[in-house]
Amino acid sequence: MKTFLFAAAATLAITLLGAPAFAGAPVALRMDTTDADGRITLGDLFDGVSGPAANLVIAARMGPTAVLDAGQVQVSARRAGFDWTNSNGIRRIIVREGLDNGSVSAGAGGASASAARGNVEVLAYARSMMAGEIVQPQDLIYVKMAGAPVEAPRDADAVIGLAAKRPLREGAAVSLRDVAAAQVIKSGDLVTITYDDGGISLSLQGKAMAAAATGDVFAVQNTLSKKVIQAVATGPGSAAVGPQARSLQARSQPVRFAAR
Fold first, then answer.
1. C-alpha dihedral, 33 to 161 to 108 to 65, nearest 10°
2. Are the folds of 2-180 and 183-251 the same?
3. For 97, which of 110, 132, 185, 205 is 20 to 30 Å away at the CA?
């Protein structure tokens, strides 16, 4: 019900505030997108919004975070007479629960203070993460920093769904070096290995000698012959050899070899 009221209020306010006096006024996405009361307003999202428009509600946050479509936010801003160019091509805006925008939040490991001195908009972690955790949309936020890290992704989609390779600190800038495809096989797992070619299908059981993500080449020991072969991980507890494996490798180049 609250969400419906917020949406209705937003629609009415957009209609009333779309006056020529605000037409084309440039605005910039805030360095730390937070809201204090569950109602996400243009003032929460943008620097440069003033007057009644700053209180224009465009979305509701029902939990600790809300993920907004950047294109829809851009349209809402334009209807209210503001122009956000989104020159960095941001696709998602992640809004966290926090203090009002008149205060500086210290919940990001000091990231807000450093962002105030910077002018590069980059992805940062909204919370600390342990190695192996899967990055979700609510785990990311855009902030401004003095410089972008090596291999900084331009889009959140580049890291969402991948696993942290090591512990990651809240407020730290995101790098593609931080993440990798989630492992579907662990060292020591029993794995079903299949060979499928021209109607001939064979399978055997092996023991994984290394961890692997889908598409990784890894060593497997035949549980009967004890012979070690190379196979390609196809999913949890499964791998392939032969033409199927070569086809999977071709689709997932460059091939990532799992270390023993």
1. 40
2. no
3. 132
